[in-house]
Amino acid sequence: MLSAADNELLTRTGPATPMGAYFRHFWQPVALSAQVAERDAVPIHVTVMNQTWLCFRDSNGRVGLVSPRCPHRGADLVWGRNEECGLRCAYHGWKFDVDGKAVDLPNVEPDSALYRNVKLKAHPTREFGDIVWAWLGPGEPPAGVPELEFGLVPATHRFVTKKLQQCNWAQTMEGALDTAHFSFLHMPAPSVRSNDNPDAPADERRLRWIRDDPRPKFQIVPHDCGFIIGASRAADGGDLYWRTSQFMLPAHATTPSTLPGETYFGYTFVPITDEDCWIYTYAWNPARPLTNAEREKFATGHGVIAEVDKDYVPLRNKANGYLRDIEDMRHRSFTGVKGVAEQDAMVQESQGAIVDRSQEILTPTDMAVVRFRSSLLEGARALRDHGIAPASAATPAAYTLRSGSWIAPASTPFSEVMMQRFGDPVGRGVN
Ligand code: FES
Ligand SMILES: [Fe+2]
Q1: Residue 183: alpha-carbon gap to chain centroid
Q2: Are residues 116 and 259 in the same domain?
Q3: CA distance 92 to 260
Q4: Residues 126 and 162 in one domain
Q5: What are 117-164's pLDDT values in tens digits?
Q6: Which of 18, 248, 265, 379 has the fewest CB atoms within 10 Å, i.e. the most exposed one?
Q7: Averaged over 213-227, what is the pLDDT?
Q8: CATH of residue 90
Q9: 228 and 124 in one domain?
Q10: What is the pLDDT of residue 226?
Q11: Is 380 within 8 Å of 357 (Cβ atoms)?
Q12: 75 CB less than 6 Å from ligand 1?
């Protein structure tokens, strides 16, 4: 559990909060590239950590992230014209480029000092992995965006989208790190028999091992930008079934199910307000392009990727009871809700807009959740109390990490499992 004060510290990311300051020392996703695909198109409002910006692509293809408020008399530039390499206010025609520089102020003399003094607040942006990232922190960014592997593979090898989640970012993040819940939330209904044939395809065996062992043993190994989590369950013939996942500061994770050759999945959590967040979700296969059939499957929801509408709101959501089907719950699935992502959203949103962590009772399977909280609290306090900026924000290459599954004899230590699965003790590198 956390004290009420620490719960506040962990969950609040507005501009005047310690966690907000900490998050602003990392590049943050602010939009999908697809949302601002077109040059000179209407800008879009984006809200990140309780601050709203305008995002647009100019005539040269550069992406800007600027304050929506025109410095003249405060009109919202979303109503302006995006043309000829800048955004022109609809009210009196003031125009700014993607860097926020005033390029035309039609109602003042051409030699006015206002050309030098007026600036629209603008933030540096980068595009990586089909996502627009912005530096919302102080000064210049110390390094480039985190080199998550999905962004390093060719665009043909990945699928990137996002979904709205209606609760605080931290409990959503915790759901990603607590891989023990798979034994229940994502299982078939109890009446559906596990396939206990040891020669069954891997999927069926994996499902049976997960269902039959609700107490995976957790191990955590820290690395340069967070930690790797190993969770082992009893498999067949004295083997252990290992599921590993990555946590990367401040709010990235990768999923635990991938066996060699399969497609990897990951997600990045970005607070919108303190009571909702975007989950940027991505699938990538390092070895080959994704097929059209796979893209279609992902577009209609698969694993951590939800089925969403044009505004990236899940089709099965809080307002419609996640379309829970009681017949399905009796005979087919544990929850009666279709989709792993939607099942996650159902329980995480049900914890409340910001879960009260002073009231919880933790168990050994919550080990990664506890470690996540202490990492974030420690980082935010170091910045607030001692001005220490997060070191991992300056090491983007440290973010090229994988996680996944492995089966090994029970005598195999976690470090050796990692070496066998990834050729590296913490899943570093691309191999
Ligand atoms: S309010 Fe924007 S130009 Fe006047
Ligand atoms: Fe889940």
Answers
A1: 23
A2: no
A3: 59
A4: no
A5: 999 999 999 999 999 999 999 999 999 999 999 999 999 999 999 999
A6: 18
A7: 97
A8: 2.102.10.10
A9: no
A10: 98
A11: no
A12: yes
CA-to-CA dists, residue 411 to 238, 342, 414, angstroms: 9, 37, 9
Burial class (CB in 10 A: 0-12, 13-18, 19+), 136: buried
Outline where 222-353 has alpha helix (H). 292-299, 326-331, 340-350
Query: From the alpha carbon of 89, which atom of ligand 1 is closest?
Result: 2
349, two tokens? 């949103």
Mean pLDDT of 55-81: 98
Q: Are residues 340 and 213 in the same domain?
A: yes
- pLDDT over threshold 50, residue 431: no
Nearest CA to ligand 1 atom 1: 73
In a domain, 5, yes or no: no
Task: Scan for tokens 């009196």, then name that residue.
Answer: 92
156 and 107 within one domain:
no
Kindly state whether residues 290 and 401 are assigned to the same domain.
yes
Mean pLDDT of 366-391: 98
Best substitution site from 72, 79, 105 to test ligand 1's pocket, by max atoms within 8 Å of Cβ?
A: 72
Amino acid occupying residue 370? V
Would residue 140 count as lying in a domain?
Answer: no
- The domain boundary, picked from 134, 157, 178, lies at 134
Q: Per the domain annotation, does 293 fall within a domain?
A: yes
Pocket test for ligand 1, best of 94, 103, 119, 120 (most atoms within 8 A of CB): 94
Q: Which of these three, 101, 134, 167, is where a domain ends?
A: 134
Question: Which residue type sits at 343?
Answer: Q
Number of domains in the chain: 2
What ligand is nearest to the CA atom of residue 187?
Answer: 2
Counting ligands in written order, the one closest to the CA of 183 is 2
What pTM did the predictor assign?
0.97
The answer to the question of residue 18 being in a domain is: no
Report pLDDT digits (tens) over 304-349. Answer: 999 999 999 999 999 999 999 999 999 999 999 999 999 999 999 9
The environment of the single-atom ion ligand 2, i.e. residues with CB closer than 5 A, is 344
Residue with tokens 């593979």: 153
Q: Which domain holds residue 153?
A: 149-422
Mean pLDDT score of the chain, rounded to an integer?
96
Domain of 231, CATH number, reads: 3.90.380.10
Flag whether pLDDT at 290 surpasses 70. yes
